Amino acid sequence: MTLNAGDKFPEGVKFLYIAYTPEVADIKACGIPIQLDFDKEFHDKTVVIVSIPGAFTPTCTANHIPPFVEKFETLKSKGVDAVIVLSANDPFVQSAFGKVNGVTDESFIFATDPAAEFSKLAGLSIDLPPAFGTRTARYAIIVSNGVVKYIEVDANGVAGSGVDAVLAAL
């Protein structure tokens, strides 16, 4: 299946993440991964899912995620309830990536798509060399009240999955 604008967001999607708390604010501190049930948490909300092939990779670190952090309040002012940065990295790496980016807001979530399961289901995974395996592609999705309002995949750069494109689509 390939997910498209206008589609109902798939049911049963679950990610893993480590919630930010002051107790685990230090980059060396590890929290406990918990499940993020998309249906339960976001069925009646507007959520931006920003997917990256890997935390701490050049494009993701320099060009893709920092603008979302910088413009988070603007996204919220346009009706976004949460931003989920998604990758196939483990939840500990994603948590560290959020900390390095200075994110402390509980509605800005750095989550993992274990084994890129959701991304594969939605036709949004990429197969990299064996050292990296199957990853989430670089994409952005706006889900509002359970319906995909916007989806864009970028093979190179962040033109369609970057914050400016997302803001223009809201």
Structure explained in plain terms:
It is a single chain. This protein has 6 helices and 9 strands. It has 170 residues and is an alpha+beta fold. The chain has a single domain (14-169), classed as Glutaredoxin (3-Layer(aba) Sandwich). A 7-stranded mixed β-sheet has the order 2-1-5-4-3-8-9. The chain is globular, with a radius of gyration of 15 Å.
Major beta sheet summary? 7 strands, mixed
What is the CATH homologous superfamily assignment?
Answer: Glutaredoxin
CATH class: Alpha Beta
Strand proportion, as a percent range, falls in 25-35%
- For the biggest β-sheet, the strand order reads 2-1-5-4-3-8-9
Poorly predicted regions? none
Structure summarized in a few sentences:
By secondary structure, this protein is an alpha+beta fold. The protein is built from six helices and nine strands, in the order ββαβααβαβαββββα.
